[in-house]
Design goal:
Distance between the termini: 21 Å
Oligomer: single chain
Structural class: mainly beta
Strand content: 35-45%
Largest sheet: 7 strands, antiparallel
Number of helices: 1
Order of helices and strands: HEEEEEEEEEEEEEEEEEEEE
Amino acid sequence: MNKNLFKVFWALLLIILGSSFSSAQTLMPLPAHASVYSGSARGLWFTAPTGFTITGLRMPSEAGTGQQFIHVVKVNDPMPIAFGAQSANFNTLAYISNAPNGIIQSVNIQVNAGDLIGILGTTTGNANSYGPSTGGSTTIGGFPVDLNRFGYQGSIEAGAAPVIWGQIDGQIGRVEMYYMIGGAGFNNAGIPDLVAPTNFCASAQDIKVKVRNYGSNVLNTLQVQWSLDGVMQTPVNITTPIDTPGSALGNDLTVTLG
């Protein structure tokens, strides 16, 4: 098989399983480092585009070599929250204090689609890794996400922030967030492999993919939406149950798309 042609074909084949994509732990891309700010705690906030699990957190190396301090919250007030009108209406999802520098801190934070998530992060001395002046954009599970400015007018070294504020756009404090789509309690499927075609000789061939259950429950129904070379094709409805990982029946199903 010509590997370059295989890569081109896979790039042209877009597959969407409802709103879920499979993933191992993935680092959410961040804007580039611009400067170090050593005043109050800063961070970023975003609206979750889908359900996922935050699995790790780390301060980027540009923030310095001090201990890590990270505070993750679910904001309950509508955003933005004015700089001068800080809010205490949030739930703390994780608070990490005096963690060794450079080590990813393991967490297990379930996030639902639509949640407003804020993350503050500094190293010793309130040192923040600032991004560019215009906020930034990223992706979570393939979905586009806007990153916005988030802060607390004080230090999080002695304890979690009691109040927070959040602006639209603006210079963010960079905190590395590692995640996986789904997790315990989620129903998720993904496409780990292209089964066919396996060669690209001139002929008409079926397109077959492997569908995998990455969730914690049996999937009884699933719709695969797919496009080829930018043209949407007829969706494929799956009614064959796909078992959970580790089950005797296995959690893979080969599906012919067209």
